[in-house]
Design brief:
The chain is of the alpha/beta class. The protein has 12 helices and 10 strands. It has 2 domains: 8-239, HUPs (Rossmann fold); 265-340, Uridine Diphospho-n-acetylenolpyruvylglucosamine Reductase, domain 3. Strand 8 (321-325) and strand 9 (328-332) form a beta hairpin. Residues 1-11, 17-31 and 260-266 have low confidence and may be disordered.
Length: 341
């Protein structure tokens, strides 16, 4: 479990909001005027059909990105005829439980200050890694969204997050599909800030006096995502800011290159077994692509080495075997391959 401490800025924000939530009223800018970032969010709502009485569940962590997201959507909600609710996920017990409790309470007060319904979920188990936290968070948000009946979950991912995701997938060994990165709206997840540089979000937060908490572990380079951001992306943004969008666009273009004889997407659908016989008749490159796509369809991201390990098992003559690779339990019979989380 990573160590998280409350930075001085976060402590001041939490203490300031504890006795009086009215401080956040200063973040609510005149509804009649839309700043450029607000206009961009409004346009994304319209472009993706998330207006006219749609209901969005805003995932709020208390950090700058999600606080900006909430304020943006609050500003344009009436204009777009959108209903908003707020959700916060508590990662449960552990050495950082005290900090998590304070941030959770902060998010609840923020939601109350906006007059929005607040929903939450808390892990009863200690989550041991970043991946486990992410999995719990997304599962909890998905279950909430289904129970409430919302049209989409709004997330605060931005351009820097997109580049981080694509580069990390490349470093871990991804295929043609994997380098495509995230979409503004897919599978019920809405990311209106995905095309926006981090600097725009920081400027908006400063202009609107948006308070937030910060996570000092973001500076720890023993996490691969942090290392990629600090050593690669930040220098790129500083010295060649225009190249960040070019990089994303280039990787997107590569992901859309046709591949002769590529398998049908239906062969890698969630909860549908993979045809073992057909898989083993393909070229090695297509076998890798099939297994990667099948894993992704079942919420499992596989590295190249993990796929190689799976192929070794799939090629064995046994008609029945079960192995655990990555986050999945893989079950194989004579004709089919199944996976479960």
């Amino acid at each position: 479990m990573r160590e998280i401490t409350v930075c001085q800025q976060s402590r001041e924000v939490i203490d300031r909001l504890r006795p009086n939530v009215s401080n956040l009223e200063m973040t609510m800018v005149n509804q009649d005027l839309l700043l450029p970032l607000e206009r961009a969010a409004f346009n994304q709502l319209i472009r993706n059909g998330l207006h006219r009485q749609k209901h969005l569940l805003v995932a709020l962590s208390g950090g700058m990105d999600s606080m900006v997201l909430l304020n943006l959507l609050f500003k344009v909600a009436a204009k777009a005829n959108v209903k908003l609710s707020v959700a916060t996920i508590h990662h449960g017990p552990g050495s950082n439980a005290g900090f998590r409790d304070e941030v959770f309470a902060f998010c609840q007060r923020v939601s109350e200050s906006y007059g929005l319904p607040f929903y939450s979920s808390k892990s009863t188990m200690e989550l041991s890694s970043e991946a486990h936290m992410r999995d719990f968070r997304m599962k909890a948000l998905s279950e909430m969204a289904q129970d409430i009946g919302v049209d989409a979950i709004a997330l605060g991912h931005h351009l820097r997050d997109q580049i981080e995701t694509q580069l990390i997938r490349l470093l871990r060994g991804t295929g043609r599909v994997g380098i495509a990165g995230m979409k503004v709206f897919e599978n019920g997840l809405f990311r209106p800030l995905l095309e926006q540089p981090k600097e725009e979000i920081e400027r908006y937060a400063a202009a609107c006096h948006i308070q937030h908490v910060c996570d000092p572990s973001n500076l720890q380079t023993d996490f691969l995502r942090n290392w990629v951001r600090i050593n690669w992306i930040l220098p790129l943004e500083k010295d060649h800011p225009e190249k960040a969008k070019v990089l994303v666009r280039s990787l997107e273009n590569l992901s859309q290159l046709p591949e002769e004889g590529l398998f049908e997407p239906s062969s890698t659908q969630k909860d549908t077994p993979l045809d073992r016989t057909s898989l083993l008749e393909q070229s090695t490159s297509k076998q890798i692509e099939l297994i990667r796509a099948y894993g992704r369809a079942n919420s499992i991201d596989l590295t190249f080495s993990q796929i190689q390990e799976l192929l070794k098992h799939f090629r064995r003559p046994q008609n029945s075997l079960q192995v655990r690779v990555g986050r999945g339990s893989w079950r194989v019979d004579a004709k089919h391959i199944f996976v479960e989380l």
